[in-house]
Amino acid sequence: MSNRTLPAAAYDRLTAAVARDTGQRRTAALWIHAAGLVRHAHDHGLLPLSSPPPGPDGLRKALEVLASCHPALAPFTDPAVLPVWSQPLGAAAWSGIEQFWAAHPGLEDGHRVDGYALGDAYQLLSEEARKGRALCQTPPWIARLLLRLSLEPAMEEWGPDNTLMIDPACGTGHIVLAAFHMARVPPVRGRQKGSAGREDQAVERALRTVTGVDLDPYAAALTAYRLLASSAAALRTRLDRVPASWPVSVAAADSLQDLDQPLLRAGAYHACVANPPYITPKDAIVRDRVRAAYPQVASGKYSLALPFTALMLEHLAAPGGFVAQLTANSFMKREFGRRYVEEFLPRFDTRWIIDTSGVYIPGHGTPTCILAHRARRPVGDTITVIRGNRGEPRVPEDPARGFVWRAIEAAVDGRLARERFEAGLRAHVAQLDNRA
User: Fold this and answer.
1) What pTM value is reported for the model?
2) For the chain, what is the HEC assignment?
3) Per-residue pLDDT reduced to its tens digit, 267-305
């Protein structure tokens, strides 16, 4: 059974039951999720274990084995990241966890190894992450469009072997994993002669391409696991056989504040992609610190999405780098967006404004839009805008096949095809002129 068909109430009931033992819902959620993660690794043959050891002590042993497989997995043995090391668990609570994962193994089809369902499960289990930090995972079909407007043209311009991408609010890694897959098998237009190479070279290149940073240390650790699980699956091997020298560039940090974090180095990224939190910080101290750090966009009761735009365009992106984000459209309607719209955005080369407010996005109750820019002064006088006329007539069975989303994809496809044709025509004319 996929977690897309498992009701959120099932997660809530299990978390509440385990929390009666642990005393905290956060601790309960992490016990449950860690058990699911270990089962995922075992079911896909990623661990050097014939079977997962039984009981809570067995889970800890399996986590030790997992953490020993690659340096990037070390956080799974850190009590500050995962309280299973400091918080005991009773037999009844453990039995409930075992029964849950036995009934819903991996929460996804057996062929899928990259852990999308595990990422979604963490969102549903962790009320703290969901409500306190506005964790809301980006559906794969939206991630793919964001990357088509950012990572794909970046690879065309800089080449797949040289392009670097970051998601500074990566959550459990949905966008980062989609970028990994795109970098491992670049679109034909982004390939260079000889860029395909062997599978191990493709996997290493993809790992070197993608970067993720998130405030939640467990979410960051889960992103690292998912990258390594995908790498091991592509190589048809186990986690401990993925070379330890291959980088997994994921860190737990406050991207808006911790700019001394090495992964947040200035001007390093050719593509910056995010679905940042849309909330206003509840903590007055944090709110004022962000406002002081980003006065160009953070005014009034600002949305955190605006400082993230500034972070990507002004700090993280290389000159001319591509920036794409899914964001709340509230800045278009409220006073806090005035400075952002009238003073900040006109400084940059806006490429796309896509109204996604009519799209059905599971878990997103906030009207959204997609913005895509280049980190440079405006070039030309054209911005491609896809406006929404109406929303979905009903909740689509498959959100990726909804009427509104399919119309947006068709409009993007048409525009990109036209741009490529025009670019090819200009190149051909220039070639003829040079021959003349």
Assistant:
1) 0.92
2) CCCCCCCHHHHHHHHHHHHHHHCCHHHHHHHHHHHHHHHHHHHCCCCCCCCCCCHHHHHHHHHHHHHHCCHHHHHHHCCCCCHHHCCCCCHHHHHHHHHHHHHCCCCCCCCCCCCHHHHHHHHHHCHHHHHHCCCCCCCHHHHHHHHHCCHHHHHHHHCCCCCCEEECCCCCCHHHHHHHHHHHCCCHHHCCCCCCCCHHHHHHHHHHHEEEEECCHHHHHHHHHHHHHHHHHHHCCCHHHCCCCCCCEEEECCCCCCCCCHHHCCCCEEEEEECCCCCCCCCHHHHHHHHHHCCCCCCCCCCCHHHHHHHHHHHHEEEEEEEEEEEEHHHHCCHHHHHHHHHHHHHCEEEEEEECCCCCCCCCCCCEEEEEEECCCCCCCCCEEECCCCCCCCCCCCHHHCHHHHHHHHHHHHHHHHHHHHHHHHHHHHHHHHHC
3) 999 999 999 998 888 889 999 999 999 999 998 889 899
